[in-house]
Amino acid sequence: MNEPNLTALLEAMFHHSKEMILFVNKSGEIVHMNAHAASTLDETGYDRSQFQHICSHCQGMYMDGGRVACSNCYLYEEEIVSFQVYMRTREGEVVPFIANFQRIDPTNEISVFTLNPLAEQLKTQEIEHQKRLTQRIIQAQEGERKRISRDLHDGVTQELLNVLLEMRLLKYVDDREALNDKVAKSEESLSQLLDYVRNISVELRPASLDDLGIEAALKTHFKWIERQYGISVDFRFEVNQKRFNAEVETVLYRIIQESLFNAAKYAEVDSVEVVLEETENGLNHRIKFRIEDTGIGFRTEDAPIGTGLGLFGMSERASSVGGTVSVDSAPGRGTKVFGSIPV
């Protein structure tokens, strides 16, 4: 059996490969490129009888630390495996590629530069990210439903049964004083039950947020936090505009609400500072927020206590309206949740 000629195989691979293959010299001039590279890259003004420079296509190299300066370009390296580079295509688009660069002819200082499109990989990653995001959102929703269901069953249902039993017994009470006493206890139980249901309603969606705006809704919530957890809130509202887009107000409310719940559950503090301030620099109009405590803190790199969906939810909520949220904490140094949202 005759073995295929290696040179012929390499030439066939070069010409027919779906991978973009370019040979460049030490100056970055393209010595050869295969058909796929020629059909993909911008060939404006390209004369095949002349060298063409790779820099006319390259729009930037990126490594783990971010964009790499041209002074540290891959052209000056002997070998770099799997880095990201943006190239201008024939259609004028700037497209990301996964690249490899290797010196194959040290004598003549010729290197091979291979490019594989990242678009499909990014699309796949985006699909996977969306799946994971959807799963976590569903988990968060189911967790909330379980909590509300448990509260309704353990709190509302049990209290209603107790009141019902008390009222059924009233018809057997002949003594007027004893009857008045049982009626008073039933009224007290119903009053507590009403507060309990109102608290659940406020947690789900406070009416004041829609009717009066973010400032009024937060002040009401802070009073509830103080009654429920004994934590006072030092609130500074340095905002001129009283009402914002409903989605922005909801995101701000939920981020602050979640931050306060976390402080109440884990920080071991009796006070929390909340600051909302409005900043405007030309077209850059934003609401900055900060929720800070001086509690026990935690290591941000550690696995979160509980489900971990609280911090995740805050980040997703902020990004949904073009904002950002960050958490700064350390053991014994308290916790600060901060960020901003464009308005």
Features:
343 residues, alpha+beta, Beta-Lactamase, Heat Shock Protein 90, 3 domains, 5-stranded mixed β-sheet, 8 helices, elongated, Sensor histidine kinase, kinase, iron, Sig_transdc_His_kinase_NreB, HATPase_C_sf
Layout of helices and strands:
Blueprint: H1 6-16, E1 20-24, E2 29-33, H2 35-40, E3 52-53, E4 58-63, E5 66-68, E6 79-88, E7 94-105, E8 110-117, H3 119-170, H4 176-204, H5 207-211, H6 214-229, E9 232-238, H7 246-267, E10 271-281, E11 284-293, H8 309-320, E12 324-329, E13 335-342
Parallel strand pairs: 9-10
Antiparallel strand pairs: 1-2, 1-8, 2-3, 4-5, 4-6, 6-7, 7-8, 10-11, 11-13, 12-13
Task: Describe the protein's architecture and organization.
The chain contains eight helices and 13 strands. The chain has 343 residues and is of the alpha+beta class. It has three domains: 6-117, Beta-Lactamase (2-Layer Sandwich), CATH 3.30.450.20; 118-204; 207-343, Heat Shock Protein 90. Strands 3-2-1-8-7-6-4-5 form an eight-stranded antiparallel beta sheet. β7 and β8 (110-117) form a beta hairpin. It is elongated, with a radius of gyration of 32 Å. The N and C termini lie far apart (74 Å).
